[in-house]
Specification:
It contains eleven helices and 46 strands. It is mainly beta. Helix 3 (about 330-345) packs across helix 4 and helix 5 packs parallel to helix 6.
């Protein structure tokens, strides 16, 4: 409690600021320099060979690999597998296994003392890396980024990197993980003395008016005497707005005063560039350029959260790291579209559930203006239940990451903080998710007491034979200390599943800000009992009352909806690819509940209508009503309207069929029950002055007649560019046929490849990576990647439908 009080006091009397580590300021390209913060990194993705299996000794340089499959990284072999009911539902009914990757490359030392490193953004999981037969190390955590020094083992001429990936414990997670080297790999060359990996750290000492005072910390690898560090802050026009120089030994810190500082915010995510030069005898021996953004954070147990001194509600969503048919290998363009679609719904924050994610996700959040709650893990020292035959069905499995917890968790947490600490988007460090789930595995006598229930399964009352819940508090103290030794500019947090039990431990006091998963009923009770506690919803359902508990309580600073996007794994009973609770579907398109969330969260006018047959029993309202207007003539249909206007009305072919109604604050929904008549149905959101603020139209369609195709780009400028190709089925009048499920075939000509076809259908367990797929609700998304710059033609056909063709320049 004393630590909590000190942190709250600190937050009341000073500002906390941060900077961005990530991409270039406006381009869609990874700034590799910023990733590792030193040397000259180059992508090392091409020219790899792959073999699924563990035969022989592939770590030996002479091993014959000429018959292995050739591929470019990143690569996820699980998503290439076949969905099977005999596999685990937790990881999406997809396989794991053991596999090897090898790459031959030339090296010419020429007597240089320079260093050569290999940097992996992520390998799932339990990887072992070799160069020329020498074992460099292992990294069991599949979400951690890591690096090895190749220098002592390189030779002139041909060299071989070999990577063994062991995901034989394929049911080791509650959600889809993927398998393989699924993120980018870099080869980094640097002088013997250089800036350390993730060796640049930032915090703001003060902001007064328009002036900011910034501290830059620098760590040096292989330091020598006579080193000088120079830091320069450069605005987006290329002008240096602040600089500082200091002589150092093995590292140190510099301060810079920034006049007329432009702050990073959600509406205006302004990014500077921080250049750091390491100099000796007047010569630059190493340098780094990192996009940075200045901003202040504030947390208060009564008034909640503020960004740059402005109080606001955090409107967050939880996201996993896959993209449906693409598995764990998600191109930057795909992430950007998804995050922008979430932001259009009013989302302003992401929770990395439940692990550090690909660096590009943080880069995009920095650039477009989203907050991030970074999270270390989903499991601590004991295994959680992993469902095999469907979520909460049958007997669970108990594989996981617990077996390497004690050896690796401190380093995994530290590496997360070091890697991500300079992103302005990151505003919370979470040390764990639901590690306090009652009886999964920890238990406590309080579970036999009154008012001990939570809104999730508890698996019974107190179990004396289970691990003692008091352990949770001790581990939380340990991991919080790891974070604080690196970064004190952001609070630590944890996502508590069983807050009733955790309140009996030191866990809530060990962290600075306390997340409550699905326990809105405890907000008032615990705010009164623990008046110094900063509380928020770290995981919440999409229902309206859960949001009202945040909206109407100043002391609850926000919530994170489960989930932002549909994801693989944590599946229901077969057939089910994943969990279907997202605001966006597997294709990254808004679902009805996404529109409902927009009506609660968006600052711009929003109106949406969905329909379903009028309930014969009960009088329920749905936030999952699809925008279809095809029924039997005269059938009683319920039309629900999600809008942030105070009123709405309903028109059919321009005639009022639903009178103006006020928004119902009990439900957040306006409804009309009307008999179905074909035509064009439109809802209008109406302001207090009677003006139409927004509208939404759906139309009755005829039979499927033709295919239409469009894309978010007109050309491929370089190898690796990815296009989203939107395929829709329309009737003779061009009206979308939202009940269509036709199978289409996609063919390409030119230097490009079809990565996948995503329908968004959770129950279709077929192959999404060939060139044939059924549309779902009349649409389909294709992912096309260029192999080189040049013209590409896409043709889409389906029996009895008019085909479509699109050309990229």
């Amino acid at each position: 409690m004393e630590a909590m009080k000190r942190f709250n006091c600190l937050l009341r009397h000073m500002v906390v600021c941060g900077f961005a580590l990530g991409m270039g300021l406006s381009q869609l390209c990874v700034n590799a320099d910023a990733q590792v913060s030193f040397g000259k990194p180059e992508k090392f993705n091409d020219g790899w060979r792959f073999q699924l299996g563990d035969e022989g000794d592939p770590f030996k340089p002479e091993y014959a690999d000429s018959t292995w499959r050739q591929l470019s990284l990143p690569h996820d072999w699980s998503i290439e597998g076949t969905y099977s009911p005999d596999l685990a539902s937790g990881t999406g009914y997809l396989p794991g296994g053991i596999a090897w990757y090898r790459k031959h490359f030339n090296h010419n030392a020429s007597g240089s003392s320079d260093k050569t490193y290999i940097y992996f953004e992520g390998v799932y999981n339990r990887s072992d890396v070799y160069v020329n037969g020498q074992h460099l190390g292992n990294r069991p955590n599949g979400y951690s980024s890591f690096m090895y020094d190749l220098t002592p083992y390189l030779k002139d001429g041909d060299n071989v990197i070999s990577v063994r990936v062991d995901h034989s414990r394929y049911a080791d997670s509650r959600y889809y993980t993927g398998s393989g080297i699924y993120r980018d790999v870099y080869l980094v060359k640097a002088p013997e003395t250089h800036i350390a990996q993730w060796g640049i750290g930032f915090e703001t000492e003060s902001v007064k008016g328009k002036k900011a005072k910034v501290k830059v910390g620098v760590s040096i690898e292989n330091p020598v005497k006579g080193i000088t560090v120079k830091s320069s802050l450069i605005d987006d026009s290329g002008k240096t707005v602040a600089h500082a120089t200091k002589k150092v030994s093995d590292g140190g810190s510099l301060t810079m005063e920034v006049p007329d500082a432009k702050l990073w915010s959600l509406d205006s995510p302004y990014l500077h560039t921080l250049r750091t030069d390491l100099m000796k005898d007047g010569n630059v021996i190493d340098s780094s350029e990192i996009p940075v953004g200045i901003r202040t954070l504030g947390f208060d147990p009564n008034s909640g959260f503020s960004l740059n001194g402005r109080n606001m509600k955090v409107k967050g969503v939880c996201i996993h790291h896959d993209a449906g048919a693409l598995g764990a290998v998600v191109p930057e363009e795909v992430w950007e579209r998804r995050l922008r679609n979430l932001k259009k719904l009013g989302v302003n924050a992401l929770r990395m559930s439940h692990n550090p994610q690909a660096p590009v996700v943080y880069d995009i959040a920095d650039r477009i203006g989203l907050l991030i709650m970074d999270e270390a893990s989903d499991e601590w020292e004991f295994p959680k239940r992993k469902w095999i035959k469907g979520w909460n069905k049958g007997e669970p499995g108990y594989d996981g990451s617990y077996d390497f917890f004690e050896e690796w968790i401190d380093r995994d947490v530290a590496d997360m903080v070091r890697r991500d600490r300079n992103h302005p988007s990151v505003f919370l460090w979470s040390i764990g998710n639901e590690v306090d789930y009652p009886n999964d595995p920890y238990s406590h006598p309080i579970l036999d007491g009154n008012n001990s229930a939570i809104t999730q399964p508890m698996y019974g009352g107190y179990k004396p034979e289970a691990p003692d819940a008091m352990r949770i508090g001790e581990i939380a103290k340990r991991l919080t200390k790891v974070v604080k030794e690196i970064d004190t500019s952001r609070p630590t947090t944890g996502a508590l599943a069983g807050v009733v039990m955790s309140n009996e431990t030191a866990y809530p006091e060990a962290v600075d800000v306390v997340g409550y998963n699905y326990t809105e009923s405890r907000y008032d009770i615990d705010h009164e009992t623990y008046p110094d506690r900063v509380i928020y919803g770290s995981e919440n359902r999409s229902d309206y009352n859960a949001w009202k508990a945040v909206r109407d309580k100043d002391f609850i600073f926000g919530q994170f909806i489960w989930t932002g996007i549909d994801y693989l794994g944590e599946s229901g009973a077969w057939p089910s690819r994943g969990l279907y609770t997202g605001l966006l579907d597997f294709a990254g398109d808004p679902k009805p509940r996404g529109w409902f969330r927009a009506s609660l969260w968006s600052d711009t006018p929003v109106t949406y209508i969905g329909t379903y047959p009028r309930p014969r029993r009960g009088d329920w309202l749905s936030i999952d009503a699809w925008d279809n207007w095809n029924y039997e003539p005269g059938e009683d249909i319920r039309v629900v309207c999600y809008t942030n206007s105070p009123k709405a009305r309903l028109l059919l072919d321009g005639e009022v069929v639903g009178e103006i109604k006020d928004m119902d604050d009990e439900t957040g929904i306006i409804l009309w029950d009307i008999p179905f008549t074909p035509g064009k149905l439109m809802a209008e959101g109406i302001g207090e002055d009677g003006s139409v603020e927004s509208s939404y139209t759906i139309s009755t369609s005829g039979r499927p007649y033709a295919i239409t195709v469009s894309s978010d780009r007109n050309s491929f400028e370089k190898a690796g560019d990815v296009a989203h190709v939107y395929i829709n089925i329309v009737d003779e009048n061009g009206i979308p046929v939202k009940l269509a499920d036709n199978e289409v075939t996609v063919r390409l000509s030119g230097p490009a490849e079809l990565l996948a076809l995503e329908s968004g259908d959770n129950f279709d367990m077929g192959n999404y990576r060939d060139n044939r797929q059924r549309v779902n609700r009349g649409k389909l998304l294709g992912y096309v990647r260029a192999m080189e710059a040049g013209p590409v033609t896409i043709s889409i056909t389906s029996p009895l439908l008019k085909s479509a063709t699109m050309k990229f320049d």
